[in-house]
Design goal:
By secondary structure, this protein is α+β, with helices and mostly antiparallel strands. The chain folds into 2 domains: 27-71 and 132-168, Vaccinia Virus protein VP39 (Rossmann fold, 3-Layer(aba) Sandwich); 77-130, Single Sheet (N-terminal domain of TfIIb), CATH 2.20.25.110. Helix content is 18%, strand content 37%. It contains 3 helices and 8 strands. It has a 4-stranded mixed sheet. The protein has a 4-stranded antiparallel sheet with strand order 3-4-5-6, with no helix packed on it. The longest helix has 13 residues, at 43-55.
Length: 171
């Protein structure tokens, strides 16, 4: 993944790390944690990532957290799609569901049909366990890290973008 990113974005620094514990040794005006934060399924892990963001945010700066869902807006769903390439094709089904609404996670199952140039087709399955926290939990953890916490509700301006949580670091 890093090698592909280096090819696509040669002007960017590429550093392998864990958002819960990475330490750059410097601060930034803004820190963004987008959908990767969904892979944190416990409050302890989410707290660690938010604290890491705080350590990397300059006084007067902000951290933005963009989960795919919050507990209050989660709904099971399915989607599908795919494309055809030079002799190869892909079709997928994405199935998002919550086997235990009492915990802090949900499941996304992906089924892929991959057709090769010779006409053979294979099927692959990929399961992702993702975190699901209430709005109040997000705001509390962001404030506990030292930020001034606020929520920005979705406006529909960007398709598929859910709620944003902003942590402003006091100057």
């Amino acid at each position: 993944m890093l090698e592909l990113s280096r090819t696509l974005n040669p002007e960017c620094a590429h550093i392998e790390g864990d958002m819960r514990s990475l330490r750059f040794g410097r601060q930034f005006d803004a820190v963004l944690i987008h959908d990767a934060i969904m892979y944190l399924t416990t409050e302890a892990d989410l707290r660690s990532a938010i604290e890491t963001a705080y350590l990397h945010t300059r006084p007067g700066g902000a951290a933005i957290f963009v989960p795919d869902y919050v507990r209050e807006t989660f709904e099971p769903s399915t989607s599908h799609g795919g494309h055809d390439g030079d002799g190869r094709s892909l079709r997928y089904l994405e199935w998002t569901w919550d086997p235990d609404p009492a915990d802090t996670s949900y499941v996304v199952d992906f089924a892929y049909l991959l057709r090769e140039a010779d006409g053979s087709v294979r099927v692959e399955h990929d399961r992702h366990h993702e975190g699901l926290f209430a709005r109040d939990d997000w705001l509390r953890l962001i404030a506990d890290a030292g930020f001034e916490a606020r929520r920005i509700a979705p406006t529909g301006a960007v398709e598929g973008l859910g709620e944003l949580f902003v942590g402003a670091r006091r100057p």
